[in-house]
Amino acid sequence: MQKNVNIQNKRARFEYEILEKYTAGIVLQGSEIKSIRLGKASVTESFCEFHNGELFMINSHIEEYAYGTHYNHKAKSERKLLLSKKELKSLQRSLQNKGLTIVPLRLFTNEKGLAKVEIALAKGKKLYDKRETIKDRDNKINLDRLKKSY
Question: What domain range includes position 36?
Fold first, then answer.
């Protein structure tokens, strides 16, 4: 079992421009937290939506716990996120703007062992923005290679 779990959504930073970040708790079942602590989760394809004033993370994948019984959880299901009322209202107001969405950036455990999700209010990038990101990354890699050779 890993002490600190840090599952990244690398695709989110490529696909979206991050505007604001929030840290939220997650409502989980016992077998879900055990799988997360083993590092058997993914938030790459997930996104967040509001249902009746509550925020849910949809399409996140937490593998079934290997030693679980018939009480095991479903791998893909909606998971409620825990934020303060002030943060929820702020996010809901921000989502009224066209082109904004909420995406999870990383799933991690804090020092107490509780599972948390870092979510972000994000705006989708255009194709030319993605090309520029790739170009910047390649330039940085080439520059690091040149520095290393000297």
Answer: 6-125
